[in-house]
Design goal:
about 425 residues; UDP-n-acetylglucosamine1-carboxyvinyl-transferase, Chain; 2 domains; 5-stranded mixed sheet; 13 helices; 24 strands; binds ligand SPQ
Length: about 425
């Protein structure tokens, strides 16, 4: 795909449904009793992998675009899959599903694509084994393929070494099926969609600042879910609106859960012209409309507990920082190394090719702005949706055209991303 520099970006778009919430709506609907109706579901490749895996375990799921109906029969009715469960590119699918499978007495095998094969799984298989699940996999359960036979779980108290919603959710979903009360503590609070949605399905949890406890043996009752727009997808157009000259973009119905809004805090600290109009909290998740316009930005430091509130937005924040006066330092973000790609390496290498003054550090990066991005280069997403989209926005401000390889990766979380770029640049 070749993108040419655009003069302005103007208009209003509806950001597709939140990926994290869409995954959970299918998983929890599948293990609940009754019919769960989901609206504004994200029909991205990752969430479709989740649907496919639960269909293989005998769950009747109807999906038409953004409407999904799940006919759940409860946890006990999940069936041993006759085939391998393939999660594609989705870390959320494999890690959360393992938490569910940890309580199921049947056998299953999980695989994913080349990227999943490199991502660490012991962070989840470790605590699940402590609960009593039998799990094996390449490198002693660190990598896929993984095989699991669950059942007979006993509650644990677990101190997670990293703030991760995937670890927390897997442990809670196994804890739901264990004898006793399972408690997980994390260094900083990670996104809390699992806790919010389990409550909507009638499960009671006990939460304080960094811990959450769940009593085993509770059942889920079907409910209706409205999925707000994904703030991680909105982030690309929040940045586009700030850095493309003479722009104003309105983003409708974007999720504003505080565990995810680090990007909004960063934009404000950097001096962006951003208006927030919170609308509602339908389905336990707050959401609202965001209006962003071209801004004069300054560099800042991003570190500590802010990182888990914007971990997936760091690639696009790095681009934002190239257009800010001064230095932006991103630290405490070593988790970036174990995402779909090593996002410290891929962000730094691809932005350098476009002319950015950026350097990698052990746990993040330093970006010196403000730089004119020259472009005129061939760059790649390396199969990572967030890198592909960051490069798509970068190409809107480069002096010369950019050729982006492997743009298909955007299907994972934002299938109509390039259509939205085209729409906004046409409405001038
Ligand atoms: O699902 P996957 O592949 O892990 O997706 C990513 C992403 O960029 O979309 C991470 F690469 O998002 C994760 C996120 O980083 C989704 C997620 C969730 O839904 O629970 C939690 C975060 O991961 P983690 O490891 O911090 O729990």
């Amino acid at each position: 795909m070749k993108i040419h520099k655009n003069a302005t970006m103007n208009g209003e778009i509806h950001i597709p449904g939140d990926k994290s919430i869409s995954h959970r709506s299918v998983m929890f609907g599948a293990i609940a009793d009754g019919t769960t109706v989901v609206k504004n579901f994200l029909p991205g490749a990752d969430c479709l992998s989740t649907i496919d895996c639960f269909r293989k375990m005998g769950v009747d799921i109807e999906q038409k675009g953004t409407d999904v109906v799940i006919h759940g029969k409860g946890l006990k009715e999940l069936k041993e899959p006759s085939d391998i469960l393939d999660v594609g590119n989705s870390g959320t699918t494999i890690r959360l599903m393992m938490g569910i499978l940890a309580g199921c007495e049947f056998h299953s095998t999980l695989i994913g694509d080349e990227s999943i094969a490199k991502r660490p799984m012991k962070r989840v298989t470790g605590p699940l084994k402590q609960l009593g699940a039998k799990i094996d996999g390449r490198a002693n359960g660190e990598y896929t393929p993984l095989s699991i036979r669950g059942g007979n779980l006993k509650a644990i108290t677990y101190q997670s070494p990293v703030a991760s919603a995937q670890i927390k959710s897997a442990v809670l979903l196994a804890g739901l099926q264990a004898e006793g009360t399972t408690t997980l503590t994390e260094p900083h609070k990670s996104r809390d969609h699992t806790e919010r949605m389990l409550s909507m399905f009638g499960v009671s949890l006990h939460e304080d600042a960094q811990s959450v406890s769940i009593e085993g043996g509770q059942t889920l009752k079907a409910t209706d879910i409205f999925v707000p727009g994904d703030i991680s997808s909105a982030a690309f157009f929040l940045v586009a609106g700030s850095i493309v000259p003479n722009s104003r973009i309105v983003l409708k119905n974007v999720g504003l859960n505080k565990t995810r809004t680090g990007i909004i805090d960063v934009l404000k600290q950097m001096g962006a012209n951003l208006e927030i109009n919170e609308v509602d909290a339908k389905g336990g998740e707050p959401y609202g409309d965001l209006t962003i316009s071209t801004s004069s930005l300054k560099g800042i430091e991003i570190s500590g507990d802010m990182i888990s509130r914007l971990i997936d937005e760091i690639p696009i924040i790095a681009l934002l920082a190239t257009q800010a006066e001064g230095t932006t330092i991103i630290k405490d973000a070593a988790e970036l190394k174990v995402k779909e790609t090593n996002r410290i390496d891929t962000v730094v290498s691809e932005l350098k090719k476009l002319g950015a003054n950026i350097e990698a550090t052990d746990d993040g990066m330093k970006i010196h702005g403000k730089t004119t991005l020259k472009g005129g280069a061939v760059v790649s997403s390396y199969g990572d949706h967030r890198i592909g989209m960051m490069l798509g926005i970068a190409a809107c401000i480069t002096e010369r055209a950019v050729q982006i390889e492997d743009t298909d990766a955007v299907r994972v979380s934002y299938p109509n991303f390039f259509e939205h770029i085209e729409f906004l640049t046409k409405t001038v």
